[in-house]
């Protein structure tokens, strides 16, 4: 017995609620609505310029024509599907759809200006630029911003909470929880600024980027100026030099930057997973939730594990898109057409990961007691502080110790050293009284340098 039709991608099934905002723009329907938008605006632009003696549309007519875009819904989706079943060409189906709307509105006299002097890629490249720009700025970036804000909030809240560092997985100079979360927020914020500065380019220059058909039809028109005005009027950056396609370099830049953000988030997710496994971070039980099917005590860090997997999938797709889209044989091939239909999938996996990270951060608690216990069990990390102070004392002429690093290495390397041993060691050092008092008062929990104040750099 066969199943009824099912979504093949989990983004359209299990995880749909977390990513459905992207479907407004990065779906086939979203792309077709953008295509209709570009065709409609090109019609209006041509009548404003009185091409072929056409009279400018009235404001009422423009409003009615633009409503074809704003009212785009299921009926339009179905009609376009029916048209494409006959045309076997998606952009041609859009052209016929727009012509039908012109008839409905009594605007038949300008029907031949529909898709005038355009190649399909003139419509497509602008439509992709519009939909990707909207998806990034209206859906993906707000979720990314929310995650950055959560890290910044945790950084501020725990700016002074001491934590043992683990360079190479080994006990190392202490830090604070807040400083480590501030590092996350700072890294992501920097990439966020790069993504926000993306140029969304568009071309509108015909079959090989030469305005050839345009010039033959209207030799006296300044076509580059018309093209530039039209593209910029859509809120995009005009690309004056292209083949049939817009070269997609802006897309490669955007996808590389987004993949970079994914990889940083992946690093963060694995860090938090590790802190959970060490007991530094605890997970808050969710009523009714099950951590393991056989071990009832467990609360698995599934939010961060799910994020890892989806960030890997997103980054792989984005890397493939960035690599594929910058190459086109001669003046045109269609590899980009199939590739670009996966833009939504790439951003969908990233958005799902962001959703899981945000949820995961809302279900954790910092275990200051566990961190304090670990700090108290690793007094040997003060070896760095002691030998550095000795060096300063030697330079100042207050000590005759010959090799402070070797001295501390012999005391601490591979050994557990407690507070009493270190205090006794310091008391016996040939250093000044003030330096000795400073070292005697030092503990692993207070050996955090400027970590707490560095968190304030997030606001600068």
Automatic annotation (TrEMBL):
Say if the entry is tagged with keyword Lyase: yes
Q: Which PROSITE patterns match?
A: FUMARATE_LYASES (PS00163)
Pathway where this protein functions: Purine metabolism; AMP biosynthesis via de novo pathway; AMP from IMP: step 2/2; Purine metabolism; IMP biosynthesis via de novo pathway; 5-amino-1-(5-phospho-D-ribosyl)imidazole-4-carboxamide from 5-amino-1-(5-phospho-D-ribosyl)imidazole-4-carboxylate: step 2/2
Q: Which Gene3D superfamilies match?
A: Fumarase/aspartase (C-terminal domain) (1.10.40.30), Fumarase/aspartase (Central domain) (1.20.200.10), Fumarase/aspartase (N-terminal domain) (1.10.275.10)
Membrane-crossing residues?
A: none
What one GO molecular function would you report for this record?
Answer: N6-(1,2-dicarboxyethyl)AMP AMP-lyase (fumarate-forming) activity
Keyword Metal-binding among UniProt keywords: no
InterPro entries documented for this protein: Fumarase/histidase_N, Fumarate_lyase_CS, Fumarate_lyase_fam, Fumarate_lyase_N, L-Aspartase-like, PurB_bact, PurB_C
**Superkingdom per UniProt:** Bacteria
Q: What's the stated role of this polypeptide?
A: Catalyzes two reactions in de novo purine nucleotide biosynthesis. Catalyzes the breakdown of 5-aminoimidazole- (N-succinylocarboxamide) ribotide (SAICAR or 2-[5-amino-1-(5-phospho-beta-D-ribosyl)imidazole-4-carboxamido]succinate) to 5-aminoimidazole-4-carboxamide ribotide (AICAR or 5-amino-1-(5-phospho-beta-D-ribosyl)imidazole-4-carboxamide) and fumarate, and of adenylosuccinate (ADS or N(6)-(1,2-dicarboxyethyl)-AMP) to adenosine monophosphate (AMP) and fumarate.
What's the protein called, per UniProt? Adenylosuccinate lyase
Which species is this record about? Answer: Frondihabitans australicus
